[in-house]
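Structural prep section.
Before we set up the soaks we want a predicted structure of the protein with S-adenosylmethionine in place, mainly to decide which crystallisation condition to try first. Input record follows.
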Amino acid sequence: MNQYVKTEKYDKNFVAKNLMGPNSMIILEELLENIPLKKGMRVLDLGCGNALTSIFLAKECDVQVFAVDLWVSATDNDKRLQQMKVDDLVIPIHADAHELPFADEYFDAVISVDAYHYFGNNDKYFDKYLRPLLKKDAFVAFAFPGMKYEVHNNIPNEMKELWDSEALEMWHSIGWWKEKFAGKLKDFEIKEMQCFDKAWSDWLSTDNPYAIGDREMMATDNGRYMNIISLTGKVI
Ligand SMILES: C[S@@+](CC[C@H](N)C(=O)[O-])C[C@H]1O[C@@H](n2cnc3c(N)ncnc32)[C@H](O)[C@@H]1O
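Run finished without errors. Recording the C-alpha cells verbatim:
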C-alpha cells in the first residue's frame, strides 16, 4: 500500500501534534485492509494514546469505539473527540489493560496500535485479560514495533548506545510473536507492515522531544533491524 488516502484527509497539524510514535493512523489504515469492520460494531481500541486511531475508526468505519489508555486521561481524549466530532461514537476510558472494565464477550473487535507489546508480550495476557472480553469470531488486529530477527543475545555494536534496554525487551521478531499466538486465533496472519518508512518519517519529522530523540536511532538502524509487525485473526 503506497497511498494512505484515508489518513491524508486528516489535518496534518492535528495528527502531528497527537502522534506518540510512528504515525498510528497510517498503521491502522494498512492494518484494517483485511479486517471488514461494519457499522455499529463495538470495538476496543486498546492503548489508544491520544485517540487518533479511535477517531479514525469512528470516522472511517462508523463503529462504536471504547478508547482505553493508561498514560492519557479520558478527559484529554474526550476534548480531542469533541474537536473531531466523534464524541457520540467514541467513549474514552482511563484504565490499565490488566483491569479492563467490560463485560465478558462484549466486543466484536479489538485493535491495538503501538501498544500491545507493552502488556501483551508474555504467555498469559491474551488468554487471561483480553480473550474473555471478545465475542467468538471477534476480529483481533494488532500492530506494534518489532525486530527482523531476535537481536537480544547479540546486539549490534552500533545500536548498543541507541536502543533503550526497556524498549528492547518488548521488541521481538515475527517468529517470537507467532509462538505466543499459536493455536489462539483462526485466519491467523502475522507479517511485516509496508508503512514502516512513512510511519516513522511522519513521527521523526515532528518536533516532539521523543521523536527528536529517536532520529539518531532510526538513521543508524537504516532499515536493518527494526520493523513494524501486524498480527490479525479471529477469536476461536
Ligand atoms: C507509544 S504509545 C502509542 C499510543 C497510540 N496507540 C498511538 O499509536 O499513537 C503506547 C500507549 O500504550 C499505552 N499503554 C501502555 N501500557 C498500558 C497498559 N498497561 N494499559 C493500557 N494502556 C497502556 C500507553 O498509555 C500509551 O498511550
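Observations: The CA atoms of residues 40 and 63 lie 5 Å apart.
Flagged for discussion at group meeting.
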